[in-house]
Amino acid sequence: MNHAVLEGARAAQAGAGTRVLKSVCRSCHGGCGTLLHVRDGELIKVEGDPDSPLNRGRLCPIGTVTRDLVYHPDRLKYPMRRRGKRGSGEWDRISWDEALDEISERLLAIRAQYGAESIALGTGTGRHHIRWVSRFGNALGTPNWCEPGFAQCFHPRVNTCILTMGDYPVCDFTGDTPAQCILYWGHNPVNSGPDGETRFNVRDSLAAARHVIVVDPRETELAKRADLWLQLRPGTDDALGLAMLNVIIGEKLYDEPFVREWTHGFDELARHVAQYTPEWAEPITWVAADKIRAAARLFARTKPALLEWGCAIEHTPKCIQTIRALSMLPVLTNNIEVPGGWVFGMHGIGRFPSLIEMLSPEANARRLGADRFKMLAGEGADLPAAHIPTLLQAMREGKPYPVKAFLVFGNNTLTTYANSALVYESLMKLDFMVNADLFMTPTAELADIVLPAASWPELDQIAGLPTIAANVVLGQQRAVRVHECKADEEIFVELARRMKLDGCTEPVREVLDSQLKGLGLTFQELTERGFVNIPIQYKKYEEKGFRTPTGKIELYSTRMEQMGYAPLPYYEEPPESPLSAPEVASEYPLVLTTGGRIPFFFNSEHRQIERVRKARREPRAEIHPDTAAALGIADGDWMWVETRRGRMKQRAKLTTGIDPRVINAEHAWWFPEEDGPEYGVWKSNVNLLTDNQPPYDPAMGTYQLRALLCRVGKAD
């Protein structure tokens, strides 16, 4: 059946007068193909696109409630200006012209007095507009844009792999050959599905795999299904990875021809990891040496095999070398650029016109953190971003220079930045703050002007998935308009025009068209097709080598050495742990891990939506029954969890699937049903406990979000 006939059949099935538009769900950044049913300008139904290679008609709990999101009565409906002091909770409705004029005037005045770098921009993880935030900043002249995950989630892997391999590898979930061994490391994608590796194609690949290995402190659904579950101490992933390298090299389980021809620095690596035996790793990781050996052997001997890794490995201040160690497991076993293994993308979307060329070398050098963290903010970054702790210090103390304005697009900063109390103190020092979002949040309540953002069915955008690889290119099209809500991308364009900037003034669709030139499509043509699935070409390196200085995968990294960082991966204990801080452990004897995903929410989002909220009314912290019994805590009790930075409470969930020495707390909790302007943000927010103070990862500036020391007790 051809495309036109198929669309006609779908429209007839949907009902007379109903249009069925292809789009892509962005309620997280997973990228499931969708069909939007629209009648008389109203979105009446959302269903999965059965043709999409990323989800094949399926939607997760979040995607199924899209209509509830779009028409939620608590949506921000029009621009508002704060009345009274910051955090007063008092607002006046204003027009878009008033809002944009005031924002333009205030920003131009601040730029004239303090310099463009005194204006910072922030956004949330993986949102549709993320590249537009830095684009507007570059046009404005400020290098200071940030996203809470940039040093803590995904981009440490991206930047490290680009330096090591010349590109970022993704799992071959949409090819014809299923992986026979999958190593899930610090990742539970059946509960999330990030960056185009949706929970659906992960489940499909899991069903086809002969062997599964899981590295996780918690007995997740994946761990229960695994051949081997390595229950490591949180924060010791680097030690475990190095010990597995020791086994693969020491027992000659590596692919000798591939390693000889296509890697650089193998001999140096082999000598280096000889010290990291499984027996050395066992007391550090809490994983038995024989189990470490078994996992390394199983991964090395089963072909094809792939590593499915998550952001847990990026939550301690030694994440870059952890990533380096883990990335070498598929490399040494020749699971790179093979069907069913790790593959480099087809890059179906052209490079986004970020306008970074508009920043002078002097402006780039003034990016907060650029002088120290070159893989986050400087020459080693694929997309340079400011270092958040340094940015917050500039807000509070004016050091190294003052930051006076902060524009936040799609981020609930008080729940998603580490050390929330210090974040609050920093935001309260600002001269001017703007927040664009779908709902009023504790963060938006601190702004001077709040803007009503469009949800994903209300805007035009494209998605190249998996992220970076862009093997599948999907069109996201505006299906409806709700209230006075406006797409973030359109807000940037209108501000740039009002401020008479030299860039970021083109219509949004013109930019999207420019990115699709390589496919020979316009944005309109892409939305009519829904998506383009580009067949993967394997072993592309055989033609041109790897895009590194040596033309090979650099086990010994020449780029990192050039920047002054260690060229070989090494072990480093987290700065706050039972081994590195025994004096702290005497008061806070338990190890805290955070960040486990809840399948009904995306980070801090969607807690307003009743149909998913009923599945998780309250936050839950996992604790072993023996630990709970010693403290008089019963299942379901409210339980204090406390670190040196603060305390919060969550419901105790007793489980034998966690070590008695470990506590797992859920992240990003707030309570939109409670009274504003705080909405319960100080009640159960795990970022009251996390640490954004030094030491940081020397290359990436990463701080400690897990493997922290804590204590717990029954809450009254």
From TrEMBL:
<dbReference type="Pfam" id="PF04879">
    <property type="entry name" value="Molybdop_Fe4S4"/>
</dbReference>
<dbReference type="GO" id="GO:0046872">
    <property type="term" value="F:metal ion binding"/>
</dbReference>
<keyword id="KW-0560">Oxidoreductase</keyword>
<comment type="similarity">
    <text>Belongs to the prokaryotic molybdopterin-containing oxidoreductase family.</text>
</comment>
<dbReference type="InterPro" id="IPR009010">
    <property type="entry name" value="Asp_de-COase-like_dom_sf"/>
</dbReference>
<keyword id="KW-0500">Molybdenum</keyword>
<dbReference type="GO" id="GO:0051536">
    <property type="term" value="F:iron-sulfur cluster binding"/>
</dbReference>
<dbReference type="Pfam" id="PF01568">
    <property type="entry name" value="Molydop_binding"/>
</dbReference>
<dbReference type="GO" id="GO:0043546">
    <property type="term" value="F:molybdopterin cofactor binding"/>
</dbReference>
<dbReference type="InterPro" id="IPR050612">
    <property type="entry name" value="Prok_Mopterin_Oxidored"/>
</dbReference>
<dbReference type="InterPro" id="IPR006655">
    <property type="entry name" value="Mopterin_OxRdtase_prok_CS"/>
</dbReference>
<protein>
    <submittedName>
        <fullName>Acetylene hydratase-like molybdopterin oxidoreductase</fullName>
    </submittedName>
</protein>
<dbReference type="InterPro" id="IPR006963">
    <property type="entry name" value="Mopterin_OxRdtase_4Fe-4S_dom"/>
</dbReference>
<dbReference type="GO" id="GO:0016491">
    <property type="term" value="F:oxidoreductase activity"/>
</dbReference>
<keyword id="KW-0479">Metal-binding</keyword>
<dbReference type="InterPro" id="IPR006656">
    <property type="entry name" value="Mopterin_OxRdtase"/>
</dbReference>
<dbReference type="GO" id="GO:0018818">
    <property type="term" value="F:acetylene hydratase activity"/>
</dbReference>
<dbReference type="InterPro" id="IPR006657">
    <property type="entry name" value="MoPterin_dinucl-bd_dom"/>
</dbReference>
<dbReference type="InterPro" id="IPR037949">
    <property type="entry name" value="MopB_CT_Acetylene-hydratase"/>
</dbReference>
<keyword id="KW-0411">Iron-sulfur</keyword>
<keyword id="KW-0408">Iron</keyword>
<dbReference type="Pfam" id="PF00384">
    <property type="entry name" value="Molybdopterin"/>
</dbReference>
